[in-house]
DNA sequence: AACGAAGGTGAGGCGCCTCTCAGGTTACGG
DNA sequence: CCGTAACCTGAGAGGCGCCTCACCTTCGTT
């Protein structure tokens, strides 16, 4: 690739990163090109589809999630690791409206550097320590993601940080002590296949 | 109003109700008119803005919510009433993608027939019975709404009913027994003003 | 029956966004 | 320094959805 092409690619990524973060994934491509100081044609040269641009912009996030997961596994307490991981992921969503969209729409593509199997280990460890309720599965983590993402979107202008309250309430519902002993949960967990369909990046 | 106008108005409402339910609030107005067998001009005659149409379509829902709230207040057990109310509201969202949008975007306009003060009574009653955790407020109900709505949207094609599992987990987090005694929640509840801003129909 | 007002119609203007392509420009190996 | 392949450009075609308005039809009243 010629070096001016590389240069333009980077300018486009910088512009897209910033606009996606502020306004979500639906920013007009023309605006991204203009912000990057490049023509719309160049944008299409570098990124033939919007999807390609989105994937390039959020490529680093998958590594970040993997790092969060690894840190969580080294936490002294399994539950604290579990909480730290989910908090970290939600912080990413709160800091970047574009990534928030990615999380909700499953638009990232590609497995997050083995994030899925790391997450499984976090969940297993929290189960083993007896602090995560036994009837909760890895697939239920999607509920946390979707729920907190929605609260972030609803409140980020008016009450940034409010999602932390929602997350705390959600996490309390996942503690072993919160299980409603009387009756089982009213629906089965999502299957692995369903999760793969809904969040391709976790397949 | 002339009777052909009334007739067309009803055809438009029927078409909009059906399309909104299946595809959400962003259906093209032209398509609604076409489905109703009426011209786009007529749609604009009856409903000068999209907002007006949406409000007319979902007018009945506010009464439904009020009815749910009243039923909840007559339940033998305060907690069961509380759960029944939230379940009912979520069922409305799960049954109609348009109403789901309304709930998330706060696009309904108008107080739901005093639904807000009824909800307050449901929450107060659940507090009084000692079953709803004390550090949860009426405003926190918005988290439930947003969260379940998001899960409904994500799963309704692939796993309809999965939201019930999410709701059950969420509700378990709201039980008094789930309060993490050690530390307070990490963020204050939304203020009444913030809630009014975010969900105008609850102002 | 006749008339005025209310209502219906749909082509077309507008704005927004996506995507293409013919023509001009630049990098870089030889 | 030259030639060519890679690259950049931006006008414009095309699609979509919103909304208006001049013209015609129908209702309902007298």
TrEMBL record, chains A, B:
DNA-binding region, residues: 28-47
Pfam family, one: TetR_N
Keyword NADP attributed: no
PROSITE patterns in the record: HTH_TETR_2
Keyword annotations of the record: DNA-binding, Transcription, Transcription regulation
InterPro entries: Homeodomain-like_sf, HTH-type_TetR-like_transc_reg, HTH_TetR, Tet_transcr_reg_TetR-rel_C_sf
UniProt keyword annotation of Transcription present: yes
Domain HTH tetR-type: 6-65
SUPFAM superfamilies per UniProt: Homeodomain-like, Tetracyclin repressor-like, C-terminal domain
Superkingdom, taxonomy of origin: Bacteria
Name of the molecule in the record: AcrR family transcriptional regulator
Lineage summary: Bacteria, Bacillati, Actinomycetota, Actinomycetes, Streptosporangiales
């Amino acid at each position: 690739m010629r070096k001016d092409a590389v240069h333009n690619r980077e300018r486009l990524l910088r512009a897209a990163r910033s606009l996606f973060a502020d306004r979500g994934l639906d920013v007009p491509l023309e605006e991204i090109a203009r912000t990057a100081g490049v023509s719309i044609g160049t944008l299409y040269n570098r990124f033939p589809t919007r999807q390609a641009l989105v994937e390039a912009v959020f490529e680093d996030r998958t590594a970040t999630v993997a790092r969060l997961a690894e840190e969580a596994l080294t936490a002294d307490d399994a539950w604290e690791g579990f909480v730290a991981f989910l908090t970290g992921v939600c912080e990413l969503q709160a800091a970047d409206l574009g990534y928030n969209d990615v999380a909700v729409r499953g638009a990232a593509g590609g497995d997050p550097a083995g994030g899925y199997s790391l997450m499984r280990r976090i969940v297993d460890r929290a189960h083993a320590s007896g602090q995560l309720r036994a009837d909760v599965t890895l697939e239920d983590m999607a509920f946390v993601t979707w729920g907190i993402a929605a609260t972030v979107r609803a409140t980020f202008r008016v009450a940034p940080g409010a999602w932390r309250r929602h997350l705390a309430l959600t996490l309390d519902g996942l503690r072993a002590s919160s299980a409603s002993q009387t009756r089982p949960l009213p629906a089965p967990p999502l299957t692995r296949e369903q999760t793969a369909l809904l969040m391709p990046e976790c397949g």
